[in-house]
Amino acid sequence: MPFLDTSKDLSALFSRQVKATPNAVALEDDKTTFTYAELDREVDCLSRRLRTYGVSRDTLVGVLLPRSADYVIACLAALRAGGAFLVLELAYPPELLADVIEDGNPAVVITHRAEVGKIKSKVPLIVLDEPAAHANGHATEPAPLPADDDLDRLAFVSYSSGTTGKPKGIANPHRAPVLSYDLRFGVQDLQPGDRVACNVFFIWEILRPLLRGATVVTVPDDASYDPAALVDLLAARKITETLMTPTLLATVLQRHPHIDERLPELRTLWLNGEVVTTDLARRAIKALPQTRLLNCYSACETHEIACGDIRKIIDEEATYCPVGPPLDPKQIYILDESGQPVDTGVSGELFVAGPLLARGYLNLPETTAKAFTPNRFDTQPGSRLYRTGDLARLLPSGLLEITGRVGSMIKLRGYSVVPAKVESEIVKNLAVGHCAVVAHGDGLERQLVAYIVPDRNAAGRPTVEINEAGYSPAARRTLAQSLAHYMIPALWVELPELPTHDVTGKVDLKRLPPPKTDAHTNGNGKAVDQDPITLDQVAACWAAALKTSKTLLTPTDDFFDLGGHSLSLADLSSRLSRHFGFRVPIARLAETTTLAGHLETVRAIRDGHTAAVQADLPAVLRADATLDDDIRPAQPATICSIDKANTVLLTGVTGFLGAFLLHDLLENTSAQIICLVRFNEPANDDQPGGVARIRRNLLDLGLWRDSVMERVEILPGNLSRTRFGLSTKAFDELAARVQVIVHAAATVNLVYPYAALRGPNVGGTREILRLASKSGATVQYVSTNGVLPASGEKGWPEDTLLDVEDVPTKLLDGYGQTKWVAEQLVLEAGRRGLPVKVHRAGTISGHSATGAANAWDLLSALIVESIKLGYAPEVQGWRAEMTPVDFVSKAIVHLAAQTHAEQTIFHLGDPKPVDTRDVFAALNELGYPTKPLGWDEWVTLWNEKRSNVKGGDGGFTVDILRSGMPTVEFLRDIVVLDNAATRPFRTCVERPKVDKTLLETYTRHWFARGWLSKPPVRQQALNGTAKLAKGPLSGRVAVVTGASSGIGAAVATALAREGCHVALAARRVEALESLQKQLATHGGKIIAKKTDVTNKAQVDALFHDTTQELGPVDILVSCAGVMYFTMMANVQTDEWERTVDVNCKGLLHCLSATVPGMLSRGAGHIVAISSDAGRKVFPGLGVYSASKFFVEATLQSLRLETAGTGLRVTSVQPGNVATDLLGMSTDAEALKKYGEPSGAEVLAPEDIANSIVYALCQPAHVSVNEVLIEPRDEPI
Which residue among 225, 781, 1184, 1254 is the active-site one? Predict the structure, then answer.
């Protein structure tokens, strides 16, 4: 049902609304307010004046006015006079304004006195703030008014922003906005009392509310893009609806993260003009919980194309939000390069047809003909297609997704880069709220530049640190996980905000400042040293204390001149102290009160602080190693075995070792694990950010599975703060819960002095002991071999302790010094009756089975860079102390259960490190030959060949050596730990040998990460991680659907272990890629394909790609499935349909793609996951049972029909399995009644995988037709 009479023009619809609500408020600006009746009179008066200028059908009336009530009156008057309004932006430069007036040839221009000087042509003017007698030009006799149902005549002309070539006047007839507004009212209607603020896309918004009795509130130009002024206006005017670009919203949310408190009346927020990232959508949903968020996609030539409610269309796994369902699906065409429609889910160029199209481009018939082509898909005369230039795809859900721009790729040294992809990964993985990626330079000097706006509220995403030369090695390392090396920006520029176009509000790439060039270096390519404490950092603290914008501050500003007072100076002191990690006294800040003066004050305090600490380091160390008197248990506590603990506190989980400790704690204990995750200002709101950081770390290391968080709690905290930044109550409640603490967190930096690392490493350990002493919790402290000096050939025994007087001279780095102090605190706590154990690790290397590596490992970097150079450093006495991380983690967890061990300190480093010459000899056999070269010559060669490598060529390893090349003494003088006293307590945890087998695993992983250009030569190892399976499944090609988790992931793992080449298929590509990394070491080829089994085209593509990449498919294991507990009476139709789509149609799609090929080859094995519910119906699972009966019937039929062809068909019928399926259900009644666990031990996914391997491994004449596998205590 239409909301408007779509047979009438805009003027007639407005007049009709005037009659319906004459006394309602129609229009407000900062000076005036008009009711509908008053507005009507103003419009009528001005329209009569326009008529005297010959305004009639298709005559243009120029409007050169600020965004105000006068602007709205002028537009309505032009329409009522029978003409159309021509948009003349105040932001136009003089030449462009003159061009637009000449091109549009308006009969008259409506303006204000202040703007008259901008108009150089002799066009007649109506100056609204002057008496009518001062209007210039010559009046003519009015022409007859056009009919109010003549919707083909012009309504307005607006000019494109002119980003390419000459701006084009887009001519829109009345029909387009009338139908457009009617469609939008179907999405979100308006009524009297609604108050709509019009700012960005002003001319598009000002007329719509006036057709439904709502109030238009014009937002002045100076407030439209000022987040503070805009929010103030929206709050003061009690706005119920407005529109923003995503860029503007991101800026607003950075300043007002809890904006709902300021805008309680805001019921609707439209987003338009740019794509909406999922990250921005999440922040908006959190910030505006009561506001409807509508993502709208449109073009000036087409008006609205699609629109959707962000809460309903957001896909947490995607980078960008879809733009919603098409408002008129029949008018949407997505075509490939040959002009043919693409399949659902496939990207192509978007074309739009229908009555909302613009008439064309003013005075540009050839351009119009290229953009608006005949619609060959429609037989109606005059039907046209508009070419949007946007790449899009229609998802199976019916939602439209914009994927980029045609021709938007950057060509860079032979590569094609899509900026939107790079921008999305930057926002997703770094603490960046908004960014733009462009190319800078020419030829071989052409580089990608990332312009970023930091997101100060980003939880769990690393900040972007940019050095003086404009590089960001840390950002490069982060992005290397998800982007190819040529897609990673070489240069970085931080801006307070991205420049936006004055008219459209979109990001204006032309106004981005140039990046830093060689002029910013000292001539030899090295960056000029920069003090880590910058004016920008101090200014940020000023802005927070003064509640102003950092961009408004200058170095000469005085704190008190800007409204500062004694209380705000105290606040500034606190903020500076927290930010820089040392006390900044108020008295020192009061001495000089300019911004530049405060910068120098902070630097001076820093230098004095560090110098004071380092000057008398023994005294400082002795004082820091003294444990507070109140840190002691009330009575001597009994050590708690970690496998008996109910709750374990783990620190350092976002680090390398910490991730594996979490994995092994979950595998080997039944405890609830509380993970302390660092945040500067910890709050409960940071918990989702903590989950994200843990998940990202575990995914990178191949450890993530969906069940991880079932036994994990996130504790946002800060080790440098008293009580981790928790309240006294929260700290005490935590202490009461925890029985064991595994303290693995530390800030590792071999360059920083003791003073810089003191807070987290020493203070953090002190707070851990404070927590443990309250309830007598056992502390398992992870230390390092760095607490001891170089040992020579013979290693240090476990009882070796260094005297405090020797620390400054024998432990030369601040990291080792802080760890020494922390050890002293732990040992002192032990003497006071607190159960403590110390685990000294050596140099921790990659995982012995998967190769998962610590990206910052110096030894790995030296090996990789040696391979790339073809030369290895020859350093007499240089040994490779490499201890695989899985050994360290397993050993700590195992030793934490050895409560009978009386010794306190355990050694986990390698007691007999291998000579690096043996390492490079083994690498030579693996296909990585190197020649020996003296250290100084090697460094010189590296500086010549590798130090200036750009892009990702070398990636992490180059950046590591750039950040600090070691010395010969550093390489030679390693710390060896003898483990004679430790070995008897960890006999069941075997240390992997550093041999060719381990090095093959490592190099294979380095190749997979892009650090090496080729994989190692495969070794036929007798043991170790390179061993290849040679069983009956070796070399077979298997496709596993539903492989991202649960049974599917377990089956894929089992098949890879058996030597299969495996294609992993599921919707969650991130999880697939993580599993792919884990399985890469088993020898077979592993590929990951994003696949929704309900989409036949995607399934067909999966099997086509698998055949192309791996060979013909021998085995299909169909694991994709859903299960919902539903009561039939509750009619959960969405879940019923989803069950049928996935469980039934998904299987049929897979069978249709595999069976014909297998039959033609006379061999193949189909395995499908059914259920014991496919043999017996369970209450609460009626539709699920029906879907599994369908599976059984389908497989039985296939088995009977293909007997004798060589095809084998197996149905696997699991009972209760520990997977995530139960969490899908939303029917609370069904879950409570039928979904409660019985208490029986359920099956693991691996149990199902083992049964499938059994069926697959039978001789060819044996067919295992059905496998019923259930928990022993839950038979059907």
Answer: 1184
